[in-house]
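chain below, 185 aa
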Amino acid sequence: MRVLLAKTATAVLVAVLIALAARVSFMLPSGAVPQSLQTVAVLGSVMLTGWVGVVGVVLYVVIGVAGLPIFADGGAGLSYALGPSAGYLVGFCLAALWLVFAARVGMVDAFIHIFLAAIVGHIVILVAGAAGLLRWLDVFEAWQRGFAPFSTGAVAKSLLLAVLVPLLRFGFRHFTDRTTATVSD
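prediction:
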């Protein structure tokens, strides 16, 4: 029971962390959706908590669709989730699944592996996001407004994750009773 409670609390904390990261957002001049720190929260949380993080990502999407204004720019509800951000929300879930797979094959342990896994995670999110924009835009415009403006930020955020994830794991190991903070848990 205690383990279930801890995992549930962790999933809720992941959803809260993503919601807080959504508040750090701004519109790019050529973007169709806001740039935010959500991808750092999504990818980092899953790298640190594994399947519990995946549950937290899904919980974030479900809570936002249910109407709590937790999406970027305070968006909420089904109409928001089916709008221009739809593909990105799906991409969050797909990228979370990718990272659990990457962890199973040992791709989230070293700096370069974390960086590459995060790059792939960002690509999954951005491709899904741009694909979601195809309801309103042609392929070229969806690429120009839904993928390209975010690519530099994706590289920077992936570097940030490659630095933060090992530091957070170190902190978890040394400041908690638990000795593991990996995706495989």
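DSSP finds eight helices and two strands in the chain. The CA atoms of residues 98 and 121 lie 7 Å apart.
thats it, cya
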